[in-house]
Amino acid sequence: MTKTAFLFSGQGAQKLGMARDLVDKYEIVASTFDKASKLLGYDLRSLIDSDEEKLNLTEYTQPAILTTSVAILRLLAMNDIKADVVAGLSLGEYSALVASGALDFETAVQLVAKRGKYMSEAAPNGVGKMVAVMKTDASLIEKICAKVAAEMKMVVSVANYNTPSQIVIGGEVAAVDQACVELKEAGSKRLIELNVSGPFHTALLKPASVLLASELEKINFSNFSLPLISNTTAKIMVQDEIKSLLTRQVMEPVRFYESISTMQELGVTQFIEVGPGKTLSSFVKKIVDEAKIANVEDLESFNKLIQA
């Protein structure tokens, strides 16, 4: 039997007008955005359609992507397309928590709005940066980051293990720049600076982690109805670890390719990326040979999936 994983988009996947054609056609999608707008106190749909500047600010990006992902998730459920296991990249882990039954959408959308605010306050624009290091051994990247961090007494570390050949580092600007110089000297040929608003998943996000922890204490999580693979451990998340893992996740690296390996061990052969963009699909292609991969972000991709 084919086992299916749903993967949920993270920050950076947002785009102006995302899921607009699905909103126009399906009531379940439109009503999800309406509910989010009421809870957030502003017109989320209008922001997504017409305010690119705000859409790219972390505190607005996060509820926008989560709502888009959950709206599509609900549409898939109505068409009897369901997952056996779920995961998300960074912010996407909150959409995965909704999909797993552990967190209700209403709580999630308000929580990620706060998470986004805490993250942007912890590391304002210009404090840090993130760079993707291509085709370089993970242990070499870790070693150089640790050396630079110790010598400069600044933060630079691995933030995302996306694929074995794409690892992202993040931290304070000067330290990341120095690590890049040393990585090139050690043989790294391609380094790509990422267009993100902060050095996520590094120690610079500690203040956000502390604030998020106190917010999480107010939330009651339900039992999982589906296994969710944690970003932080790349293992199945268990009930009594949810709060501590979400607290750690903000400032610890995302172990995406290990998470996909865990899914394979659970028998997953089909991966469906739910929400804007195709970033996670492109990662899976590099991690899993001959995986069945689909994504759902608009009417065209939705129709393609249900007709497959």
Automatic annotation (TrEMBL):
NCBIfam families: fabD. The keyword Transferase applies. Residues 7-300 form the Malonyl-CoA:ACP transacylase (MAT) domain. Belongs to the fabD family. GO terms for biological process: fatty acid biosynthetic process. One of its GO terms (molecular function) is [acyl-carrier-protein] S-malonyltransferase activity. SMART domains: PKS_AT. InterPro entries: Ac_transferase_dom_sf (IPR001227), Acyl_transferase_dom (IPR014043), Acyl_Trfase/lysoPLipase (IPR016035), Mal-CoA-ACP_Trans/PKS_FabD (IPR050858), Malonyl_CoA-ACP_transAc (IPR024925), Malonyl_CoA-ACP_transAc_FabD (IPR004410), Malonyl_transacylase_ACP-bd (IPR016036). Keywords: Acyltransferase, Transferase. Pfam families: Acyl_transf_1. This is Malonyl CoA-acyl carrier protein transacylase. Its EC number is 2.3.1.39. It catalyses: holo-[ACP] + malonyl-CoA = malonyl-[ACP] + CoA. It comes from the Bacteria. GO terms for cellular component: cytosol. It is an enzyme of class 2 (transferase). The active site is at S90, H201.
